[in-house]
Structure formats: C-alpha cells, structure tokens
Amino acid sequence: MEVKAIIFDMDGLMFDTESLWEKAFVKTGEEFGYSFTSKLHEKTIGTNQNTIKDVLKTEVGAEFPCDDFYLKYVSNMDLVIKEEGISLKNGLKELLDYLVSNDYTFAIASSTPTKRIKCYLECAGISEDIFKFIVGGEDFKNGKPHPDIFLKTCELLGVEPCEAIVLEDSNNGIKAAYSAGCIPILIPDIDVIRDETREYDAYEFSSLLDVIDLLKNK
Domain span at residue 99? Predict the structure, then answer.
C-alpha cells in the first residue's frame, strides 16, 4: 500500500460532534412540530446541506420547509456547542503530530461548510495551516455517499485516489470513499454501521491512534 495523502472527515471523526448534531436535529424537529428520531438523523450523517434537505422531503413530504429548518438546525447546533463545547476524538492530536513530523500531506474533506470547519479547528486549538486543503460540503451538489468531494480533494492534492487514505466514521462517508477509489478506513462513531459498509472499508479501527500504527507498518 503506497500512501501519499491522508484525507480526514470531520464530524464524528476528528471531533465528537455527531451526537451534538443529533441533539440539535431532534430539538429543531420539535420546534417545527415533528418528533424526529435518532434513526432519521442517521440518514443525514456524513451528508451535506442538499442531501439533508432531500432526506427531509422524502421522509416528511415535499411541502416541508427545508430551508427554514436547516437554518434553525444550524442555529441550534451553535447553541448546543456553546453549552457543551467541542471534544476531540481519541488520538486526533497524536495522529496530527505524527503526520506533521513525518511530512505527510493531509487534508479535510467534510460535508460541513468550510467556515464551520475552520471555526471548529480554531475552537479546538488546531491550526488550519497544517492541512494542505480544507474542502467543505457547500462546494458540491452531490454530497456523500457520492464520491465527488473525495475525487476533488485528491485532484487538489495531486494524488491518485488509490494513493489516498480516507478516514471516515459513517456509512455515507465510507461508501463515498470506496466509490472514489480511495483507501477507506472506518472508525465508527454514533452511526450504526451497516454490513454492506464493512464490505467497502479496507480497515476498521477503534480510534485514530490505530492509524499511526498502520502508517508505521505500511
């Protein structure tokens, strides 16, 4: 396995934020008069704004005010973060230090808008400058599980997809990485991982610390 680049997802992979998004999702549903469940939220994990709206239209109905919901959803997420803060996932700092020390090229490719990605990094005390590129979900009509974001990130990094490891925590993210031709590594978070997803991933680890061992032994 020749690895020339590492691509990070963000929510649920770098930061323990997927559970916060779920709280905001359920709360926003209540404010709109709906009993949204964690199971419905799972369908949106790893996806971008457009896909979230498509899921809601499919599940609730074409008349659902998706734009208003999304704005309130993001606003509620900000309130949850203000109350609870952002926690790093186990091994993130250690893996980033290892990649920097060993001159790896790495990037973030997240369905979250770029502005929010940079805000999270700042809140966590992680310099955005260590990443070669930060690619956000607002730049792609077709979010995960479509491969577009990873194909674009590989293009920006100047590597073939087969030379890039993608670190993901969700079903949608792993499928997108596999479809792009990258090397998918699954590190599960709150998303219930489907059996078919495990057919797509090249490796499955319990934390980002395991990625260091993989790179040391590649």
Answer: 5-16+87-216
